[in-house]
User: What shape does this take?
Amino acid sequence: MAGRPSLRVVIVGGGTSGWMAAAALARLLPGRCSLHLIESEAIGVIGVGEATLPHIRGFVERLGIREADFMAWTRGTFKLGIEFRDWGKIGDSYVHPFGTFGRGKGDVDFHHYWTRLRRAGVAVPPLEHFSYACMLARGNRFDLPATDPDKLASTYGYAYQFDALLFAPYLRRIAEGLGARRTEGKVVEVLRDGASGNITAVRLEDGQAIQGDLFIDCSGFRSLLLGEALAEPFEDWNHWLPADRAVAMPCRTETAVTPYTSAIAMPAGWRWRIPLQHRTGNGYVYASAFTTDEDAARALTGAVEGAPLADPRPLRFRAGRRRRSWAHNCVAIGLASGFLEPLESTSIYLVQQAITALIELFPDSAKCAIERDEFNRLIDMEYDRIRDFLILHYHATTRTDTDFWNYVRTMTVPDSLAEKIELFRRAGRVVKYREGVFLDASWIAVYIGQGIEPEGYDPRADLPDATMLTRSMQALHGEIAATVAQVPEHLHYIDRYCAMAAAA
Ligand SMILES: Cc1cc2nc3c(=O)[nH]c(=O)nc-3n(C[C@H](O)[C@H](O)[C@H](O)COP(=O)(O)OP(=O)(O)OC[C@H]3O[C@@H](n4cnc5c(N)ncnc54)[C@H](O)[C@@H]3O)c2cc1C
Assistant: This one.
């Protein structure tokens, strides 16, 4: 990196996105930038965001963090997927696993063979019985995946569930240790260059102006720099994702510390259950057009499993994103850039993708139009794909019991999603993405879990002899069940694993 200019990077906001950005830039771009983060304890952080996707492991690894240490610090648990209850219809339950169906090998996806037998009237077990990750989750067990690709235990990944209020401070230690500077204070004014429109400095309440070349807006929903100062328009997706409020309330854990997050459908939305080592996080995400705040708080309080550890806390949001996440010399990361409700735990993933894209496209100066356009293209693609995946969960319901479910069942969905659903319904095919977050197994889990069973399947699935195919499915089913039975119970595994951090 020698010879390249070093940019003065100013990060506004010290929540999960601010400190993720600071730690990653400090670690991965040494010498390319100086980092100055401003945060206001009086304003505080959103304090939710506890369930993640497997990509987070790459982030933790690239920062050189020891996983056991990280889990111990953040009171983290492992996550093998998300359990969806009552979505297709009341009484349904399926797991969206972080893993494949079948052995995850071969040219033809496993669900085509499964569909072939089902359509021929063979009594095959539900699809999730053929997913090692689903069965581990259902059995409340956990172990690290095998590295030998021939083993069934290599067919899954995992993520973390952690305490949102412990994650950012953990990263802060790392970022400050690598030279990032922090200033406590409230930004009250954003100063811009009259000719270029670029941001030149932010002024704090005490009068000091902090100058920079590149500004990272991590100020949360307020979007202080990108939304307010630069007036970047917000694209509202409320008509497709009508949930616009949540009420959150942690409680004592009185049932299992599951290696998965639960998303349980409710009359006007859904409720999350995220088990951590020391408590369970809960929240009801709902559409204010279909219920009241009081009813939502009452419904959540009545539904949580253990004694509440705090009063219900209300949160408001809008589904959608800024038209551009990077405008002028300002890159918004996290809630300042946009928000898609937490049904598939995608916000921290989006933060991570934005940081990765910024590092890969890191400009040499505040004049950065080409880098900016490519960054925006990548981030838009991520948002659009996640949006479609989330809408699918709502739209593919058969529930008719409340106005909310009637609305989402009958609403018009984006053309991009309508085409995907049609392709799967007709032939069991999943629209292929070369990059992006949710790959085939995720879509298959949700389609089938919500009752969209394909009318056709890949013709190559007809090649094996039917009796042989049935036998090999039975064998696989038995092998998964037997292998899972050998795996430690999730909480025992965590206790042992985190003890390694204490011993180190
Ligand atoms: C109901 C709900 C549930 C969620 N669940 C999940 C989940 O399970 N998984 C997931 O990945 N994500 C989830 N999220 C999203 C997740 O919480 C956020 O993506 C994540 O916490 C990052 O937030 P942030 O850092 O962008 O904003 P914030 O945490 O709001 O931080 C904003 C920062 O900016 C500072 N700030 C603001 N204004 C000023 C100012 N004027 N001067 C100085 N500083 C200022 C604040 O002090 C704070 O430090 C959820 C969100 C909601 C609403």
User: Anything to note?
Assistant: Residues 7-77+162-237+320-384 form a domain with the FAD/NAD(P)-binding domain fold (CATH 3.50.50.60). The two ends are 34 Å apart (CA to CA).
